[in-house]
Design a protein that fits this description.
The chain is of the alpha/beta class and 446 residues long. It folds into 2 domains: 339 residues, Alkaline Phosphatase, subunit A, CATH 3.40.720; 64 residues, Arylsulfatase, C-terminal domain, CATH 3.30.1120.10.
């Protein structure tokens, strides 16, 4: 009798801990993958005839493919700032590219007052790693290891030579944590994949966030069998420059896809598939070397081709397989989504601009109507339902209105016949612009 009582007492004492362990185990691992300059038409599951991407196609088949997903920026740094803060990049203080050139804004970066996805998940008990392209500050204090990522291997600039690891100014740019590492050699896409896989193997017994920011398919256009193109100190090795950019682009895309396949394979090997949420996206649309499908415009513009990008979410057993989502989603929604899934949170009073997609992903819930904004280099756009207002993208037509439901290619300007709608959307943009400008995180003077 006494033994039974002691057994019951022990169980009751342990029950809270067991409940916590059970609850903790339900939190998914997070694999966040971002491609660089990958266009809406650059994956075979989005209709590409030039690039075959079987591993990403399989993720789409096993999960959800988005047809109306958008990067918050039309170029690299802004979208990355928005992705990792859950805020419009204008509010986060990085509304344009952080350039390697010291004559421009090389001293800018993601300030300590900004709260990152890595910090939030680290506080929630996750292990955090980031591999690949940072592009949110060159100076040491902006290194990812000081922004919530316990491990970092990659580069901090906008792009590096895939072999020599030199940025556009000829500065060596390959880091292990907050220190340069000149010893590691190899093709950047392969290195990013290898380090991500290693991190997953090492951290698989506890919840983890791995942010895989691929260099592909950004220039320089180098396949895995090419040679270095850049020289330390600046300049190009002319003899090594590839002329067949289309083939290089295809090879770069293929290597990234195969690397993603390796990440999925290690998850399967470690029996983590069912408890891992994978999200894939691009930081902006393709330039004229890639494909944006039927969309108008390219990277750097606020036409659809500049910011409507491929995106895939996969979480077996939670996200219905083979789902196609046509709701309007933007990359600043990714952080709130992950925070909800991971049961993590931002500090009290901290403002996020994105919304959680958890209900949309797992229950196909409709998002609440909202305005979505883009603003880059004097060109702007507003989205309200199917309507899109484009401002100052062209000198001849500084105000243009399109109904994307019937005119995805943005070819029929309806601004004159929908003047009241234009006025309403202009007012919404003006109010948003004032809000994010007034609350923007300041950058330091030189």
């Amino acid at each position: 009798m006494l033994k039974s009582i002691l057994t019951l007492f022990t169980f009751l004492c342990l029950f809270p801990a067991l409940a916590v362990a059970e609850k903790k185990s339900e939190r998914p691992n997070i694999v966040l993958i971002m491609a660089d300059d990958l266009g809406y038409g650059d994956l075979s599951c989005y209709g590409s005839q030039n690039c075959q991407t079987p591993h990403l196609d399989k993720l789409a088949q096993r999960g959800m493919k988005f047809t109306d997903f958008h990067s918050s920026g039309a170029v690299c740094s802004p979208t990355r700032a928005g992705l990792l803060t859950g805020r419009y990049q204008q509010r986060a203080g990085i509304d344009g590219v952080v350039y390697a050139d010291p004559k421009k804004n090389r001293h800018h970066g993601l300030q300590k007052t900004e709260v990152t996805l890595g910090q939030c998940l680290l506080d929630a008990g996750y292990r955090t790693g980031m591999f690949g392209k940072w592009h949110l500050g060159y100076q040491r204090q902006y290194n990812p290891t000081f922004r919530g990522f316990q491990q970092f291997v990659g580069y901090v600039s906008g792009n590096v030579d895939y072999f020599a690891h030199l940025d556009q100014t000829g500065v060596f740019d390959w880091w292990h944590g907050p220190e340069l590492n000149r010893e590691e050699q190899g093709y950047s896409t392969h290195l990013i994949t290898d380090h991500a896989v290693k991190f997953i193997r090492e951290q698989h017994e506890q919840p983890f966030l791995v942010y895989i920011a691929h260099e592909a398919v950004h220039y320089p256009y180098q396949g895995p069998h090419d040679k270095p193109m850049r020289k330390e100190g600046g300049g190009e090795i002319k003899a090594a420059k590839r002329q067949d950019i289309a083939n290089a682009y295809r090879e770069m895309n293929t290597e990234m896809d195969q690397g993603i396949g390796k990440v999925v394979s290690v998850l399967e090997e470690l029996n983590l598939t069912d408890n891992t949420f994978i999200f894939f996206l691009s930081d902006n649309g393709a330039n004229n070397k890639g494909s944006n499908g039927a969309l108008r415009g390219f990277k750097g513009s606020v036409w659809e081709g500049g910011h409507r990008v491929p995106a895939i979410a996969c979480w077996p057993g939670q996200i219905p397989s083979g789902t196609v989502c046509d709701q309007t989603v933007i990359s600043i929604d990714v952080m709130p989504t992950i925070l909800e899934l991971a049961r993590a949170r931002v500090p009290a009073g901290h403002q996020l601009d994105g919304v959680s997609l958890a209900g949309l992903l797992t229950e196909k819930k409709q998002l609440q109507p909202r305005n979505v904004f883009w603003d880059y280099n004097g060109r702007s756009a507003v989205r309200q339902g199917p309507w899109k207002l484009v401002l100052n993208q062209e000198r001849k037509t500084p105000v243009a209105l399109f109904n994307l439901k019937s005119d995805l290619s943005e070819s029929q300007n309806l601004a004159e016949e929908q003047s009241q709608r234009v006025t309403k959307m202009q007012a919404a943009f003006k109010a948003w612009k004032k809000d994010v400008t007034q609350s923007a995180t300041p950058q330091p003077d030189k």
